[in-house]
Structures are given as structure tokens and as C-alpha cells.
Amino acid sequence: MFKGKVVIVTGGSRGIGKSIAESFASNGAKVTVTYKNSIISDSFDAIGIKYAQCDAADTAAVQVFTDSVIKEHGRVDILVNNAGMTKDGLLMRMSEADWDNVMNTNTKGVFNFTKAVSRQMISQKEGKIVNISSVVGITGNAGQANYAASKAAVIGFTKSIAKELASRNINVNCIAPGYIDTDMTNKLNDTVKQGILNTIPMKRIGEGKDIAEAVMFLCSDNAAYITGQILCVDGGMVM
Ligand code: NDP
To answer: What's the pLDDT score for residue 137?
Structure first.
């Protein structure tokens, strides 16, 4: 489905981003993932996924990375802004650093990568951008003011950039995952996990593949007339 397409997935070393990268690669795309600290396993080499250390919050590093992908392939067809982090806590105990780190990765990172690829996509007269937000960017969540704000900002950003780039044949959409089984959610205690599970009408925790399938759809020709949308992939949590 994506034979020869040049794809960047940010934060693709683990979790949801890894599932997205593997889905693109198995559909014939040329995929490069970024990460911040991980040691990457050989499994990526085996399926031809390239990887580069690049802090999404570092504007200059993102430009250097994106330029290197464009130099190598001559284009960028698809950007998935997936890199994200949490630093949870009630507002009264949330430090300035906890706020800044989450906003810089989750929101500024999306700005950095989108800006870095947009000139190339405009000159190509085509492109797909998918931003990974969260259902808590829609609903809010006690103990996650920084994270919820960062993800709500991604929704506003998505709609604005979709309007800016629509006439250039560039689709910009957003996926809001619910509760997905990754390292990010594994650190929650069992009581919190059970509490979240109770709010999911489908009564199961999502998998990275559930998000990857939605990304494949939004980046396919089948979604050519869809832009500026927020797709909740959450087993019915938010409806
Ligand atoms: P994980 O914690 O499992 O993986 C996070 C990924 O992001 C890793 O690849 C990590 O790299 C990378 N990353 C983090 N910070 C940076 C940074 N500054 N620069 C570059 N890469 C970075 O998270 P998930 O897979 O669970 O989450 C993926 C996305 O989905 C995030 O945006 C998250 O907010 C969102 N999401 C997740 C949900 C869930 O239930 N899991 C629910 C809703 C949204 P490294 O390995 O080097 O640390």
C-alpha cells in the first residue's frame, strides 16, 4: 500500500511508534524512526527500518535530521508525530520543569517536525501528516494538567495546519488514542489501570496495532478527502 513512500515516525523505538513503523515497513515504505534515549534492537535492521537519535524538543536537531532524510530520499511523503512523554502529578506538586519538559516534547516537538517537513511537502504538492494526541487532550485528566494541555494543543495545531496546507494537497489529521498497552501505561499501578479499564465500553486495553491501523487508513488514498479531523481510537471511551 505504501511501496516506496518515505515515512518519518517520531518516537518509533518503542510502543505505539514502533507498531506504526512496522506497519509502514511491512507495506513497502522506506521508514526512518527517531528516538531520544533508547538502545535500538536488531529487529529494525532485519525489516529495513532506519533509526536516528533526535530529541523532538530540539529545533536545530530536528532540522538537521529532516534535512538528512530529504537529502537521502529526495522527498518526505508521510510524517507521524508520535514522540511523547508524561510527567504526572497534581498541579500543586507540578514543577516548572515537569511542565516544560512535557510541553517541549509533546507540543513543541510536533511544531518542530511539522515545520521542518512542510516546505518539502509543499514543493512536492502532496503529503500526509498524522499527529498522535490523546483522549485526555479532549476530556482533561486530574494529575495530568501538563500532558492534557500538551495534547489539547496538538489538536488545535492540527486543525490550524490542516487549514494552512489543505490547498497544497497535504492532509493533516490527528489520532487520539485511549488506553494503549505500552511502557507509558505500564508504569501506572494496578488500581489506576483497573479504573481506566472500567471506563472502556469495549472492555479491553488497546494495542499499538490498533493505533497503527488507523494511521495506515489516514495516510492511504482512501482518506484523501479527510483533513483536520480528530479520530479517537479508544474502544469507545470518548463518544
Ligand atoms: P512510550 O513511552 O512507550 O514510547 C515513547 C516514545 O517516544 C519512545 O520511542 C521515546 O524514545 C520517544 N520519545 C519520548 N520523548 C522523546 C523526545 N523528546 N524526542 C524523541 N523521542 C522521544 O509511549 P507510547 O508508545 O505509549 O506513546 C506514543 C504516543 O502516543 C505518545 O505521544 C503518547 O502521548 C501517545 N498516547 C499514548 C497512550 C497510551 O495509552 N500508551 C494514550 C494516548 C496517547 P526513547 O525510547 O528513546 O525514550
So the answer is: 98
- Cα-trace Rg, the chain: 17
Average pLDDT estimate for 59-79: 98
* pTM, two decimal places: 0.98
Q: Is 167 in the pocket of ligand 1 (CB under 6 A)?
A: no
Write out pLDDT tens, residues 94-105. 999 999 999 999
Q: Using one digit for the tens of pLDDT, what is the confidence trace for 47-60?
A: 999 999 999 999 99
If we measure between CA atoms, which residue out of 45, 41, 34 comes closest to residue 69? 34
Domain positions in the chain: 6-233
Is residue 59 lining ligand 1, measured as CB closer than 6 Å?
A: no
| Coil/strand/helix, residue 237 | coil
Q: How many CA atoms lie within 13 A of 166 on its CB side?
A: 11
Q: Is the CB of 209 under 6 A from ligand 1?
A: no
DSSP letter for each residue of 88-126: -B-GGG--HHHHHHHHIIIIIHHHHHHHHHHHHHHHHT-
Q: In angstroms, what is the span from residue 27 Cα to ligand 1's centroid?
A: 23
- The pLDDT value given to residue 29: 98
Inter-residue contact 179 to 200 (CB < 8 Å): yes
Ligand 1 centroid–CA 38 distance in Å is: 11
Q: Which architecture characterizes domain 6-233 according to CATH?
A: 3-Layer(aba) Sandwich (3.40)
Pick from 154, 207, 147: nearest CA to 177: 207
